[in-house]
Write a structure and sequence with these properties.
By secondary structure, this protein is an alpha+beta fold. It has two helices and three strands.
Length: 71
């Protein structure tokens, strides 16, 4: 999973993204993805890479759970 900000993002938005990833480095919790790498060398906004979760996307999981409840 790659997390970034849009091209032309404000410096505040970029700083928030980098602060978030620096906060998560070294965190060990089953419900938190630990960043694998941060790329700040390419032109454009920084990119944070996270491992793909074994159960997939949280949004899709919640959607599926809600769909199953309504049946």
């Amino acid at each position: 999973i790659i997390k970034t900000v849009v091209d032309g993002a404000s410096l505040t938005q970029v700083a928030c993204l980098l602060q978030e990833v620096s906060t998560l480095i070294g965190v060990c919790h089953p419900n938190i993805l630990t960043p694998l790498l941060v790329n700040t060398e390419l032109r454009g906004p920084p990119e944070n890479a996270y491992p793909y979760p074994s159960k997939g996307n949280l949004k899709m999981c919640v959607h599926e759970c809600n769909s199953n409840k309504s049946v």
